[in-house]
Amino acid sequence: MSTTATPGLRPATHPTVTDGGLETDLIFHAGVDLPEFAAFPLLDDERGRELLRFYYRGYAEVAVRAGVGLLLETPTWRANPDWGARLGRDAAGLARTNRAAVAFLSDLGGSYAGRVPAVTVSGVVGPRGDGYRADGGVDAGEAAAYHRPQLDAFAEAGADLATAYTLTTAGEAVGVVRAARAAGLPVAVSFTLETDGRLPDGTLLADAVEQVDADGGPDFFLLNCAHPRHVLRALDEPGGWQSRIRGLRCNASTASHAELDAAEQLDEGDLDVFADGHSALRARLPWLTVLGGCCGTDVRHVARIWGVDPPR
């Protein structure tokens, strides 16, 4: 259960820490094998759950040190039908996993009640496709039906919020929002950007935000899996749409998605450049409240942008 004053919505209005690049951190720093880049199988046994506890506790300590809220986001980016099937998970198994992920973080978050101003548990939705590429247009109705079972599982488990990360098209974002509303969940949508500041399908970020908002829109938007320099390029298009962006989970590397996909070593980027980029983004987007990281980042990166020492 949430310890927020306004369940599910506080991260959009109050400073809030979230985590970094879960999968890249576990693969390159903890030496964990994650087939299909999926972290949710770690919930299946105590060893995996302990790895996840250690990971999330680092970011919780950043929130404690910064004196801000904590957004705990489930390791379920790949826990949807297409990716789950590659790992031998059927619909019933995925539902159990998605419910278990919320319960796991609710329990962990409870240990920080009173140590941070608020704890919010978000069920994470990932794209049906690759996340780095846009494979043609996405029908919003089809996307809503596809993502609904995962969102229902989050709602059944008592999640405060659903957040869809690394979306590459406005159509899929509209579908996720529709499905979350039908499931009774507050929802946030996060697009990923290419080095030119556009979505992978070539859409201007401004146009994507306005298209999703025209269909009712999420509670707020975030951006993830792009370096701060790439995000800054998206802001060249002026307009009120920019105030809808409330969160960032940026990559450590300035490389393109194609370059990152082909890389065999982790690019942890330059901490100074990463931090300076966030300072520039905060100046351009004074409404930002949720800050964490994405590929290549770890607790050091997130602590740096919050101006505190890393806990480990």
TrEMBL record:
> Keywords, A to Z?
Metal-binding, Methyltransferase, Transferase, Zinc
Q: Which GO terms describe its molecular function?
A: metal ion binding; methyltransferase activity
For binding Zn(2+), which residues are annotated in this chain's numbering? Answer: C225, C294, C295
Which InterPro entries did the record assign? HCY_dom, HCY_dom_sf
Q: Does the keyword Transferase apply?
A: yes
Q: Which cofactor does it need?
A: Zn(2+)
- Biological process according to GO: methylation
Which Pfam families does this one have? Answer: S-methyl_trans
Which Gene3D superfamilies does this one have? Homocysteine-binding-like domain
Domain Hcy-binding, chain residue ranges per copy = 4-309
Name it. Homocysteine/selenocysteine methylase (S-methylmethionine-dependent)
Instruction: Give the species this sequence originates from.
Output: Friedmanniella luteola
